[in-house]
Design a protein that fits this description.
Helix content: 10-25%
Strand order of the largest sheet: 4-13-12-8-10
Largest sheet: 5 strands, mixed
Strand content: 15-25%
Radius of gyration: 32 Å
Shape: elongated
């Protein structure tokens, strides 16, 4: 009898899966399954339509050229070129292979700043030789097409331009670095010392390095160590795809050899703040280790 009941149980679940007498699959006929499937297709289709419609309505209120809310725009970030891991530059002045990666990184970055890359007058504009005020190029829209960008002459970087010295000072143990600010410098960041300039200054990170850093030379537009305001505001890659951010070149001409020297560079503005949580917020620090042999 136990065997008979087991066989009956096996037959019941098989019959539940497919009942050949009633033509039912899992207890439902084909017509019932079709109605359920049709209901869920319509139901989820409506949900998807509502979701897509909501997104489309939201996108109509957002400009692809300008952020709608700018009340939480962070202070500008500062970084260095060459871009290196662990923000450390270490090389031997007499060994070109040790500093060749830094030289190549600088040359690659400055390629767009060469004169032959800024010849199209429909794109580039001569904005003068000295820092001036912000340059308003109209609304953040494409109604007037792409907007012009200010030229930045590579020659302004002098010893750090790579023109006179292709090694950027590394072969003489006088390394150059570039200090570009991020492109999204907000208009409300106002100059602190010069009305048309966001200055940059580098100093020893640690007190014990004060006598190891030596002389520091700065090169930039008009001989100023800072970012001229006429290069802002930046309108974004859609409106200014060939934008050239202003640069400040810093050359350390007398760093002490065979010791680690930490340097911190800062940009100064009335409301530029610095945070211990973000090492690139308005500043950056870098370590030099120049070996004599």
């Amino acid at each position: 009898m136990a065997r008979g009941k087991a066989k009956d149980g096996d037959g019941n679940w098989k019959k539940f899966i497919w009942n050949s007498e009633k033509k039912e699959l899992l207890g439902r006929t084909g017509g019932s399954w079709f109605k359920i499937l049709l209901f869920y297709v319509i139901f989820y289709g409506c949900l998807a339509g509502i979701f897509i419609g909501t997104i489309q309505v939201m996108l109509l209120t957002v400009s692809e050229f300008e952020p709608k809310y700018q009340d939480r725009v962070a202070p500008p970030g500062l970084t260095q070129v060459p871009q290196v891991q662990k923000t450390e530059i270490s090389f031997t002045a007499s060994d070109s292979k040790s500093y060749d990666p830094y030289v190549k990184n600088l040359e690659k970055f400055l390629k767009d700043y060469s004169a032959d890359q800024q010849t199209e007058n429909i794109i580039f504009q001569d904005c003068g030789e000295l820092p001036t005020d912000y340059k308003d190029r109209g609304p953040y829209s494409d109604t007037q097409g792409q907007k012009k960008v200010c030229k930045f002459k590579r020659e302004w970087l002098e010893n750090c331009s790579g023109i006179q010295d292709p090694s950027f000072g590394y072969k003489d143990g006088k390394p150059c670095i570039l200090a570009p600010v991020n492109e999204s410098l907000p208009a409300e960041v106002m100059a602190k010392y010069n009305p048309y300039l966001i200055p940059v200054h580098c100093a020893p990170k640690r007190e014990e390095d004060a006598d190891k850093i030596g002389t520091v030379e700065y090169y930039g537009m008009g001989g100023y160590s800072g970012f001229a305001l006429q290069y802002y505001p930046y309108y974004g890659k859609l409106l200014q795809p060939r934008y050239l951010q202003p640069l400040v070149a810093v050359q350390f001409t007398n760093l002490t050899y065979d010791v680690e020297v930490r340097v911190e560079c800062r940009a100064y503005g009335q409301n530029i703040q610095y945070s211990d949580k973000d090492r690139f917020q308005g500043r950056f620090d870098i370590k030099f280790d120049i070996r004599s042999s």
